[in-house]
TrEMBL record, chain A:
Pfam families: SBP_bac_1. Keywords: Signal. It comes from Anaerocolumna xylanovorans DSM 12503. Residues 27-46 are annotated as: Disordered. InterPro entries: Bact_solute-bd_prot1, SBP. Residues 1-25 form the signal peptide. Coiled coil: none annotated. Gene3D superfamilies: Periplasmic binding protein-like II. This is Raffinose/stachyose/melibiose transport system substrate-binding protein. SUPFAM superfamilies: Periplasmic binding protein-like II.
From TrEMBL, chain B:
It is a multi-pass membrane protein. PANTHER family: ABC TRANSPORTER PERMEASE PROTEIN MG189-RELATED-RELATED, SN-GLYCEROL-3-PHOSPHATE TRANSPORT SYSTEM PERMEASE PROTEIN UGPE. InterPro entries: MetI-like, MetI-like_sf. GO terms for biological process: transmembrane transport. This is Raffinose/stachyose/melibiose transport system permease protein.
Automatic annotation (TrEMBL), chain C:
PROSITE patterns: ABC_TM1. The keyword Transmembrane applies. Residues 84-296 form the ABC transmembrane type-1 domain. It comes from Anaerocolumna xylanovorans DSM 12503. InterPro entries: ABC_transporter_permease, MetI-like, MetI-like_sf. The chain crosses the membrane at residues 25-44, 89-109, 121-145, 168-194, 215-236, 277-296. This is Raffinose/stachyose/melibiose transport system permease protein. Belongs to the binding-protein-dependent transport system permease family. Keywords: Cell membrane, Membrane, Transmembrane, Transmembrane helix, Transport. Gene3D superfamilies: MetI-like. It is found in: Cell membrane. It comes from the Bacteria.
Length: 438, 280, 305
């Protein structure tokens, strides 16, 4: 017994000493200093020149094909600017990642340049003055990222622009074209064709829409509003109850109408998004509303097409939900360090250059050449985005957020069943929205 | 007569074995399910999860190992969770010993303090703790994870150890006392040896929870070299929705070392330590 | 039979004598108190303070002063009522079944001669497998289109059932919760049984206490402390239960009907980014937990604390 206890306590002491030692060795101001930090320190002393250390953070995760290109770009960058050393911390952007970024800013451990969201996720950080706005940057570097389309920028709540968008997305209606052909149906370019398709599929035991309202009702809300009111009404941010467009209510009423026609899976209020997507992949369902990233999972690329969600008021609508909800920020902390300004600007210029964007995305905020040899799916996707031109709008939840949006999302199940009235749901959400915003 | 009794006894234990085996079937099944599914693609899992894989593909494991240094991640996990476990055991057993043996003024308050902290969600405490970690230069350091994890697991350890120590017989402590042993000696010579099974059970769970605590790990550690296994594998399986194939393979890779730790520690959860152990 | 009470009796006088020097508390309790205050209570109290201000997003700045508005909201929010009700049901089920099954298994495993190590090992499996994986497995059981349960029903010629419909969902969520952590209480209770001196069992046998009698009169009374510990852990555990229910029924699916306090707190804090209100819920959970564990202690006649 004595031996066991001694062993345990000895081990404990060793661990503690090791821990303290490693803690002390990181006595440098830069907290990210570990092995790499030490190596670079040695390199520094050899060179005698003080390298600028640029701390960058991106959301390219380990299995993101873009990561490889990104890492290569960092190498190219360091080759081009030998006086800059890039210390990059990239990671997939999940909940933990977001919490980590917020924690970093909260305690002053933020990076110099960061690829982060431009939607409501960023508002808190912008309000606390964490980033430099583009006007400030351009007053010193007038040509900073001038090649980016003006409409690709997202304005923060204070009206200023902060981030340089790079990788975008769009949302669209995905159709299993082979199922439409099989039942001699036309693709739903207007509302009547959509209703016909829903009825026909329902009669033939094909689920019309593969969707989960308990997990991801977001796309359906946005597209029903879009169907009833087009991008113009979708863009409205109601400051009071009487500013709510009538089309919003009309759109939300379609939840019950479509549900009564049997447009949704039986377990639509309790299944998960992944399982509902399987219905579409397996041709058990005919249609699905999803984002451009959904393409990656589709193997049958010659029988699936994307198109804008049909409008209730016109034929061949081109209106889509699309945009750029992330972008590259320069933090105020980096900007205040004048020696770093140039390096920050150079880095963002390179990471937003058409040459780099072409490698990582087909939805770019500037002109890039169309990829060659596209499949039917890729071609229809490219067309959907390009044809929309400026008839695009960001999702509603890029503006109406948090509790308000959540109350709306969580009421979809009740609207489907008719236990809550659309008017009451939207009014409730807008009331919360206007009471919580500053 | 004797023979008959023996038969009766054996027959009597048959229903017990049946019950135990039935429950065992429910707990073994998911493990087998997990292993089989780790050889499938994400799509195959969602569509025919309960069948044998169409062909045993190592792709998920190859992806999981990929370019990452998973062995180093195991090492990091062991250092972090092992240290957390040892520190919690030491501090927790001292506290439980005091709480079950001493009468003092603020005992009730301290008891409430322990029970209350059982329910603290990590998000509610992490920001101030992270501030300290940054101030002490512990970002990207194992110690930066060990400290908060020790704090969050301490309450559990103390509560469980109190339950066990309350039931320990007093005779041995008295005997030691009469022989002139000090309190620290009673703790090391009587309490710790007698509590060995309880310490082992607590150790298992503290290790497990520290090992699986992704949130703290992700907040404090940012460089892939410092990642423990869960953080490393979480990243590859969570991008692009969820790749269920990579996820199941990751879970298998995560589970195996915990089972090894469990089987090692489980040896201590045995009978007959009570009296004999202390005399030796 | 008389052995148990005698064994259990404590001679207060002697105990007072051994543990009379309160100065020892400094090194016995000091480290724990220090760690808890620095890394749990100081942050948590500042978090309660946060719940009086408007805060958007984790680590966000304190906005407008709200006072106790978040605490008033606790009483008005219909989701809180649902969550408290559901957490109460889950708590009852976990205490009765999780601890109950754990106790039964521990007693049975203790009573058999062979395969003890085998059972001890396999009963631990569900605890180590992550909630994401267990949740996925159960979702594939429950799925309406081609889920395992509906395949079985189909094979028997029945119509498929929507297993996570409004009326069934909570039960379907509680099954994996109870099942996966029964092994946790099994390990703790088995440890407790192993701690009971063999002498007691032997003398009980001589008195004719075997089988159920032995369990009822000897094992359970002697395990009382450990059982109480398990109940307190089950109570506090079900109040903060989060990961498995979140995977099986995200956002309280269907229609928020299956929200638990833990899942609702997560939704409010991380999805709605309403950190101040989330903190208020966290505070309420802690208060509820302390009250209920105190009731447990009273019911199980633990006057010491």
């Amino acid at each position: 017994m004595k031996r066991v206890f001694k062993k345990v306590s000895l081990l404990l002491v060793i661990v503690l000493i090791l821990g303290t030692l490693s803690a002390c060795s990181g006595g440098e101001k830069d907290t990210s200093a570990n092995q790499n930090g030490k190596e670079s320190k040695e390199a520094d002393t050899k060179n005698e020149v003080t390298k600028i250390k640029l701390k960058t953070v991106s959301m390219f995760g380990a299995t993101d094909p873009a990561l490889e290109h990104y890492n290569q770009m960092i190498k190219d960058f360091q080759a081009k600017y030998p006086n800059v050393e890039v210390v990059d911390e990239s990671s997939a952007s999940n909940e933990e990642w977001k919490s980590r970024i917020k924690a970093d800013f909260a305690v002053g451990n933020e990076p110099d340049v960061i690829l982060y969201f431009t939607d409501a996720n960023s508002h808190g950080l912008i309000e606390s003055g964490s980033f430099v706005d583009l006007n400030t940057i351009r007053s010193e570097f007038p040509d900073y990222c001038k090649h980016i389309y003006e409409h690709a920028y997202t304005a923060a709540p204070d009206g200023k622009q902060y981030a340089i968008p790079t990788r975008g997305f769009y949302e669209a209606l995905f159709c299993n074209k082979d199922l439409f052909d099989q039942y001699k149906l036309e693709l739903p370019t207007n509302w009547d064709k959509l209703l016909t398709a829903v009825n026909t599929f329902k009669e033939n035991n094909v689920v019309p829409f593969a969707v989960s309202f308990s997990d991801v009702p977001h796309y359906m809300i946005e597209h029903l509003v879009l169907a009833a009111g087009g991008v113009e009404d979708h863009r409205v941010v109601p400051g009071s109850l009487d500013q709510i467009p009538a089309s919003w209510i009309k759109g939300m009423e379609q939840f019950k109408t479509l549900s009564d026609l049997g447009a949704f899976p039986v377990d639509v209020n309790s299944t998960t998004d992944a399982l509902s997507a399987e219905l579409f992949y397996n041709k058990q369902a005919a249609m699905r509303v999803d984002g451009s990233w959904f393409m990656g999972g589709i193997t049958d690329k010659e029988n699936v097409v994307t198109m804008p969600f049909p409008s209730m008021t016109k034929d061949n609508s081109k209106d889509i939900i699309a945009g750029f909800t992330s972008g590259w920020y320069i933090t105020k902390k980096a900007w205040q360090d004048e020696s770093k300004r140039q390096a920050c600007v150079d880095f963002v210029e390179m990471v937003s250059s058409p040459e780099f964007l072409q490698k990582i995305t087909s939805v770019a905020p500037c002109e890039i050449p169309a990829p060659e040899n596209m499949s039917l799916l890729d071609q229809t996707g490219w067309d959907t985005f390009v044809n929309a031109k400026d008839r695009v709008d960001l999702p509603i939840d890029s503006r109406i957020t948090g509790e308000a949006w959540s109350s709306w999302l969580n009421s979809v199940g009740n609207m489907v069943e008719g236990t809550k009235q659309p008017k009451e749901v939207i009014e409730n959400a807008i009331t919360i929205f206007n009471s919580t915003k500053e | 007569m004797r023979e008959e009794n023996r038969k009766k006894k054996i027959l009597g234990s048959v229903p017990i074995y049946i019950i135990l085996l039935l429950w065992a079937a429910t707990t073994i099944y998911p493990f087998i399910w997990l292993i089989l599914n780790s050889f499938k693609s994400s799509r195959e899992i969602l569509n025919s999860s309960f069948n044998l894989p169409q062909n045993f593909s190592w792709l998920n494991y190859i992806n999981a190992f990929g370019k990452q240094n998973i062995l180093r991640a195991y090492g990091n996990s062991l250092v972090i969770s092992g240290s957390t476990m040892l520190i919690v055991l030491l501090i927790g057993s001292l506290a439980a010993f005091a709480m079950t043996r001493y009468q003092f003024k603020f005992k009730k308050i301290i008891y409430f303090m322990i029970v209350g902290s059982l329910m603290f969600p990590v998000f509610a405490t992490i920001i101030p703790v992270f501030k300290m970690i940054v101030k002490w230069n512990l970002v990207n350091q194992s110690l930066g994870v060990i400290i908060p994890q020790t704090a969050t697991n301490l309450a559990f350890a103390v509560i469980v150890l109190m339950g066990f120590m309350d039931s320990l017989p007093y005779e041995l402590e008295e005997a030691s006392f009469l022989e002139g042993a000090s309190v620290s000696r009673i703790y090391t010579k009587v309490i710790v040896p007698l509590s060995k099974p309880a310490l082992a059970s607590v150790a298992i769970f503290v290790f497990l929870w520290s090992y699986n605590d992704l949130f703290t790990q992700m907040i404090v550690l940012r460089r892939r070299e410092t990642f423990p296994v869960c953080a490393l594998l979480n990243e590859i399986s969570s991008k692009y929705g969820t790749d269920f194939g990579l996820m199941t393979a990751s879970v298998v890779l995560v589970v195996v070392p915990v089972l090894v730790v469990y089987i090692l520690l489980q040896k201590n959860i045995v009978k007959g330590l009570t009296a004999g152990a202390v005399k030796g | 039979m008389a052995t148990a009470p005698v064994y259990y009796m404590r001679i207060e006088g002697k105990r007072e004598m051994i543990y009379r020097k309160k100065i020892n508390l400094l090194w016995l309790l000091g480290p724990m108190v220090f760690i808890m205050i620095t890394f749990l209570y100081y942050p948590f109290v500042s978090n309660i303070w946060n719940s009086l201000y408007n805060i958007v997003g984790l680590g966000g700045n304190r906005g407008e002063f709200l006072g106790v508005r978040n605490y008033q909201k606790l009483f008005e929010d219909p989701n809180i009522l649902i969550a408290i009700k559901n957490s109460g049901i889950i708590m009852l089920l976990t205490v009765v079944f999780q601890v109950g099954i754990g106790l039964t298994l521990a007693i049975l495993v203790d009573s058999v001669k062979r395969f003890k190590k085998f059972f001890q090992t396999v009963y631990f499996f569900p605890i180590v497998i992550s909630a994401t994986a267990i949740g996925l497995m159960f979702n594939l059981f429950y799925s309406y289109y081609g889920g395992m349960l509906n395949q079985i029903l189909n094979a028997m010629g029945h119509n498929p059932v929507n297993w996570k419909s409004d009326s069934l969902a909570l039960i379907m969520i509680s099954v994996p919760i109870i099942w996966s952590y029964a092994g946790f209480y099994f390990v703790l209770l088995l440890t407790g049984i192993n701690g009971i001196s063999e002498d007691i069992f032997e003398s009980a046998m001589l008195d004719g206490a075997v089988g159920f009698k032995k369990v009822y009169y000897i094992t359970i009374p002697l395990l009382k402390n450990v059982i109480r510990t398990c109940i307190i852990l089950a109570v506090t555990g079900s109040l903060k239960a989060f990961d498995l229910p979140w995977v099986i029924a995200p956002k309280g699916a269907p229609k928020g009907l299956t929200h638990l306090l833990g899942t609702y707190m997560y939704q409010v804090t991380f999805i709605e980014e309403n950190v101040d209100y989330g903190s208020a819920i966290a505070f309420m959970i802690v208060v509820l937990g302390i009250i209920i564990s105190q009731i447990t202690n009273r019911l199980m006649k633990q006057e010491q604390y």
